[in-house]
Design goal:
This protein is α+β, with helices and mostly antiparallel strands. The protein has four helices and two strands, in the order H-E-E-H-H-H. 3% of the residues are buried.
Length: 79
């Protein structure tokens, strides 16, 4: 994913992946107004294929409210 993002350099996408000590991954995505900038990548399609078989726990999706942001999401200055 990161290689594809570096190659295509979509300006509206901010993407961060964290791995917790227990091996769980957290993906943080900021897409601006162009949601296809990430989901339209061939690497994203490949990443999501057979995703259920690679997971040890169910996917948890939850909208979040930004409390603070410094250079992770677009316009990222401390607030």
């Amino acid at each position: 994913m990161f290689e594809a993002l570096n190659e295509t350099a979509p300006q509206s996408v901010r993407y961060l992946v964290l791995e917790l000590d227990d091996g769980e991954f957290i993906h943080v995505v900021g897409e601006g107004n162009d949601t296809s900038a990430l989901t339209g990548l061939a690497a994203f399609e490949a990443f999501t294929q057979n995703h259920a078989e690679r997971r040890s726990t169910p996917v948890k999706r939850s909208p979040a409210r930004i409390i603070g942001n410094y250079h992770v999401l677009e316009g990222g200055k401390a607030g």
